[in-house]
Design brief:
The structure holds 3 protein chains of 3 kinds. By secondary structure, chain A is mainly α. Chain A is built from 13 helices and 2 strands, in the order ααββααααααααααα. Chain A has one domain: MetI-like fold (Orthogonal Bundle), CATH 1.10.3720. A two-stranded antiparallel ribbon of chain A has the order 1-2. The longest helix of chain A is centred in the first third of the chain and has 33 residues. Chain B is of the alpha/beta class. Chain B folds into 2 domains: about 180 residues, D-Maltodextrin-Binding Protein, domain 2 (3-Layer(aba) Sandwich); about 140 residues, D-Maltodextrin-Binding Protein, domain 2 (3-Layer(aba) Sandwich), CATH 3.40.190.10. Chain B contains 16 helices and 10 strands. Chain B is globular, with a radius of gyration of 27 Å. Chain C has one domain: MetI-like fold (Orthogonal Bundle), CATH 1.10.3720.10. In chain C, about 70% of the residues lie in helices and about 0% in strands. Chain C is built from 12 helices and no strands. The mean pLDDT of chain C is about 85. The chains are: A mainly alpha, B alpha/beta, C mainly alpha.
Chain lengths: ~290, ~375, ~270
């Protein structure tokens, strides 16, 4: 540990602005909503300041737990595919010449500066029965009924992977780019094969990036509702849709708040477990 | 791509013994890039502050409306006629603007366009100003029936802007005979399986179920709600999708052959494909109304009333009927519609008295609304 | 790490190429549709520039696009500065194998909170404090979750960082500021860049928080708000035209900067 670590004042100064921002603009507003979760819904949708546990009791309904599990499954699948596809891509960018790396990263993000909605519409154009993919299949001689690629869980997973893969690539790249050539050379010189070098040296060092990327995709996917709406034909109900419908359609802020904090609590526990696992995978290095 | 990822092998000896001079050069380049970035960002901040400062000054009043729901030049004409500058905000759904109004107590808005059940709720929450008929003389343009709307008898806190009904929009060239019942939508025949869409918004989705069984669209009986929910779960297995926004293009392209639709929307389908027709099922349908409301918190109520009055003028209101192809409750304006338009879009000829025979959508109250939302959640979450 | 081995290098390059193809296929569809005369995604009506012309006259979309750019840039700037400092502060406070997991988890909180909750929470908060809404309130709101993303990304970079080079720099007489600016920052720059890109991308596409926390009126309307509002009557190809132009401008800027940023004569 260097002397810098021992300098508590320095780290305190560094922490203060960010912490302050989050304290004022995140913690306090969320405490407000937390308070909502313990009171009753007003007759016309506002708040009746009467304390109740009812909202949290309702949250434990099998209907909502089922939706939570389904969302977790879809988000999990999206995360898995995103990491599997994104890791080699990030690796490839990290191995490109330094001066080209920013360009590659930029090109990865660029499609996502168009709008989410029109990108999703573009996928609908590709996937629907009269769409391009079916036409391509017909070109290659497929003669059956057009395949219904849309309005299924699979199309939702595809949409999520598509929209969040850049996050994975960026996160993994961030930790991979630290790894330098000397490490690789040293390992080779000592007789290890490429695969062993990768598995034993590069992979563990890249775990922080993989962990961060996986968390990004999972968290963003589970709260996503537009993809489920458009690519799932509103037939795939995710937690995001559920919370929206409570806040906006039922105008039941207390219940929506209770559901949200229930979700947040579960996610925090999962993230804690993930942080533990990530540390172990890194080999306990400081 | 292969060219950019260099395949040349370089000796590592040089990379380890970089000279101080080279270090400096590389660092300088990075620092200068960073300086440029910082400069750019400072520029961005100052531009934004400038714009925020400037924006605070210009407008007299603010309205919130659905996109494309009023003539593009209406605000300019209003400014020319009254000198009032109007700022237009957009909302995509009733629910969103309601959320925002509830969280901010109506701050920042003067006139808002919402559907009737939401106008009712805003009124019950005490957020609306009373409509002064003296300040909105064009109210006289409305049909007598337009003052008999149950959610606001006499139009005390809202002014109707458009109205219509819901029914089945279908491809008359592919679906014969023409559908006559809600059940044909809810239980599609084998020929239509997977080629039907239904509306996704709770009131209409459940409404179709209620109407098919002869119940009210404002039904609060839990047994009825459960029955409709079960019907819709079965329906979900046989339809293509729930769709509120792109169903007419699916009809036009042939991806779907029958759609649960609002009458005005079906006209867009007819525009794209003349074979698309609209029918109100024999069990009856609902009457929906989109209204204009003035917020009590508005600091520009005089201007707000002028605006509402302007929108009700015959020459302004008729734009809606001619361009959005929705029926409007403005007798003076409807009288001016061309016979061709009425022939092309027959649902424009549904008379106000016929409309008033339909059941009006009302606010359901907290318990029933929560029950509806839960039923919809159960329908959407049901596994196929 | 700038010279890949030939072993597996081709496979990697091909994979990257395929990933780019996957990312850009819908974009190509988008671009094609922007030239579609019929305006419907299902029917090709011939090539036409009419949507570009109509875009040029659509001041609502153009002002919303400008607002989005301003908001995203400002929120990213704030997030990069605060997030990097936060990451640094946290990493410097870690002592060996401590219970860093708790801090790790809490820092992810801004990302986990559902956006509608954050939207309503912030609006209620601003309303309580009687703070006026406008573009600035959107910027503040976006910075909240962006800080968490930047912090997380920069921390991955700091985790195996060799702090002794900073110590060496100070021992050699440089001030904290110089050490930070000339030694640390260049080393973590890829992390800050990645975090900044991420944060910009998130802001550019964010709808619900922007909608709730915007002032009322066109001066506070961002592009996602404008586009989601258009969903009711169908999103016209003007948006496709806009997206195509954004791509064009960005790629041109990229090529220009690549040309300016030539490789140094010496080997890396």
């Amino acid at each position: 540990m260097s002397a810098l670590h021992a300098d508590r004042r320095l780290s305190a100064w560094l922490l203060a602005p960010g912490f302050g921002w989050l304290l004022i603009f995140l913690v306090v507003p969320c405490l407000l909503v937390l308070v909502y979760s313990f009171v009753e819904r007003g007759a016309y949708g506002g708040i009746d300041w009467l304390f109740t546990w009812e909202n949290y009791q309702r949250a434990f309904d099998p209907l909502y737990l089922g939706i939570l599990l389904k969302s977790a499954k879809i988000a999990g699948l999206a995360t898995l595919f995103a990491v599997l596809i994104g890791y080699p891509a990030a690796y490839a960018i990290a191995r490109a010449p330094r001066r080209r790396q920013a360009a590659f990263l930029f090109l990865v993000m660029l499609p996502f500066w168009s709008n989410y909605l029109i990108r999703t519409y573009a996928w609908i154009v590709l996937l629907n029965r009269e769409g391009l993919i079916n036409r391509l299949l017909q070109l290659f001689g497929y003669s059956g009924e057009p395949i219904s690629l849309l309005y299924t869980e699979a199309s939702v997973v595809l949409g999520l992977v598509y929209n969040y893969i850049p996050f994975v690539i960026l996160a993994i790249f961030s930790s991979l780019s630290r790894i330098n050539n000397e490490l690789w050379d040293a390992s080779k010189d000592l007789g290890a094969s490429s695969w062993v070098t990768f598995r034993r040296i590069i992979l563990p060092l890249s775990v922080p990036g993989v962990a961060a990327g996986a968390v990004f995709v999972f968290v963003l996917s589970i709260g996503n509702f537009i993809t489920a709406d458009l690519l799932g034909g509103k037939q795939v109900q995710m937690v995001g849709n559920l919370i929206y419908s409570q806040f906006l359609t039922a105008r039941d802020w207390p219940f929506g708040a209770a559901l949200s904090f229930f979700l947040i609590a579960i996610m925090l526990i999962l993230l804690f477990v993930q942080a533990l696992v990530a540390r172990r995978a890194e080999g306990g290095r400081a | 791509m292969l060219v950019l990822i260099s395949k040349k092998k370089h000796s590592n000896r040089f990379s380890l013994r970089r000279t101080a001079f080279e270090h400096n050069k590389i660092n300088n380049r990075r620092v200068s890039i960073m300086r440029k970035l910082k400069g750019l960002m400072c520029l961005g901040l100052s531009v934004s502050l400038a714009i925020v400062a400037q924006a605070a000054s210009a407008k007299d009043m603010v309205i919130s409306i659905w996109d494309g729901y009023m003539a593009p030049d209406a605000l300019d004409k209003f400014k020319a006629a009254s000198g009032v500058v109007v700022d237009k905000a957009l909302h995509a759904t009733n629910e969103e603007i309601m959320g925002k109004l509830m969280a901010s107590g109506g701050e920042g808005y003067d006139v808002v366009f919402v559907s009737s059940p939401f106008a009712e709720i805003l009124h019950k929450q005490g957020l609306l100003a009373d409509i002064d008929p003296v300040k909105v003389p064009n109210l006289k343009n409305l049909y007598p029936e337009a003052s008999k709307l149950e959610y606001d008898l006499g139009n005390h806190f809202s002014v109707p802007y458009t109205w219509g009904t819901t029914g089945i929009c279908y491809r008359s060239d592919k679906v014969t005979p023409a559908p006559t019942s809600w059940n044909e939508l809810l239980n599609p025949s084998d020929a239509l399986k997977g080629k039907v869409t239904m509306l996704a918004t709770d009131r209409w989705m459940l409404g179709a179920g209620f109407l098919a069984k002869g119940w009210s669209v404002n039904d609060s009986d839990t047994a009825h709600i459960a029955a409709v929910r079960d019907q819709l779960i079965a329906t979900k297995k046989r339809i293509l999708a729930f769709d509120d926004t792109t169903f007419y293009s699916k009809l036009a392209s042939g991806e779907s052959l029958m759609a649960h639709a609002w009458d005005g929307w079906c006209n867009y389908g007819t525009q794209a494909n003349a074979a698309i027709k609209f029918v109100v099922p024999k069990e009856g349908s609902d009457l929906w109304v989109d209204t204009m409301v003035v917020l009590k918190s508005s600091k520009h109520q005089e201007e707000a009333f002028k605006f509402v009055n302007f929108m009700l003028a015959k020459e302004n209101h008729v734009w809606v009927a001619e361009n959005i192809l929705y029926k409007i409750p403005n007798q003076a304006a409807m009288a001016g519609l061309s016979a061709d338009l009425l022939k092309q879009y027959p649902n424009m000829t549904i008379t106000p008295s016929e409309l008033l025979k339909m059941e009006q959508l009302r606010d359901l109250g907290g318990t029933t609304q929560k029950a509806y939302t839960r039923a919809v959640t159960e329908i959407m979450a049901a596994q196929n | 790490m700038s010279q890949p081995r030939s072993v597996g290098g081709t496979v990697l390059s091909t994979h990257l190429g395929l990933v780019y193809a996957f990312l850009y296929v819908p974009i190509l569809v988008l671009i094609l549709l922007s030239f579609n005369k019929s305006g419907l995604p299902t029917a090709w009506g011939g090539v036409s520039l009419k949507w570009y012309v109509s875009l040029a006259h659509n001041s609502a979309i153009l002002s919303a696009a400008l607002n989005t750019f301003i908001v995203a840039l400002s929120a990213t700037f704030i997030a990069c500065v605060l997030g990097t400092f936060l990451a640094l502060g946290i990493e410097l406070r870690r002592k060996g194998n401590d219970k860093g997991q708790v801090v790790d988890t809490l820092l992810m909180a801004p990302m986990i909170i559902p956006d509608i909750v954050l939207a309503i929470a912030l609006l209620s908060f601003f309303n309580l404090l009687k703070v006026g809404l406008g573009l600035h309130s959107i910027i503040i709101s976006h910075a909240v979750f962006n800080i968490a993303f930047v912090c997380a990304v920069v921390r991955t970079r700091l985790k195996h960082f060799d702090y002794s080079i900073l110590e060496a720099s100070i021992d050699l007489g440089a001030s904290w500021f110089t050490t930070f600016r000339r030694v640390l920052l260049p080393a973590i720059f890829p992390g800050v860049l990645a975090g900044g890109l991420l944060s910009f991308t998130l802001s550019v596409d964010e709808f619900i928080i922007a909608f709730f926390n915007s002032g009322s009126g066109q001066a506070s309307t961002t592009l996602p708000m404008q586009i989601y509002a258009m969903i009711r009557f169908g999103v016209t190809p003007e948006i496709n035209a806009l997206a195509t132009l954004v791509m064009l401008v960005s790629i041109t800027a990229l090529l220009a900067s690549q040309r300016l940023n030539k490789a140094p004569r010496t080997h890396e």
